[in-house]
Amino acid sequence: MNVGEVAALAGVTVRTLHHYDRIGLLSPSGRTAAGYRQYSPADLDRLHQVLLYRELGFPLEEVATLLDDPSADPAVHLRRQHRLLQDRLERTQAMVAAVEKEMEARSMGISLTPEERFEVFGDWLPEEYAAEAEEKWGGTEAWAQSQQRTRAMTKDDWLRVKAETDDVEARFAAALRDGVPADGETAMGLAEEHRQQISRNFYDCGYEIHAGLGRMYVEDERFTAHYEGIAPGLAQYVSTAVQANAARHGG
Amino acid sequence: MNVGEVAALAGVTVRTLHHYDRIGLLSPSGRTAAGYRQYSPADLDRLHQVLLYRELGFPLEEVATLLDDPSADPAVHLRRQHRLLQDRLERTQAMVAAVEKEMEARSMGISLTPEERFEVFGDWLPEEYAAEAEEKWGGTEAWAQSQQRTRAMTKDDWLRVKAETDDVEARFAAALRDGVPADGETAMGLAEEHRQQISRNFYDCGYEIHAGLGRMYVEDERFTAHYEGIAPGLAQYVSTAVQANAARHGG
DNA sequence: CTTGACCCTGACGCGACGTCAGGCCGCAGC
DNA sequence: GCTGCGGCCTGACGTCGCGTCAGGGTCAAG
Question: What pLDDT is stored for residue A29 in this prediction?
Answer without folding.
Answer: 94
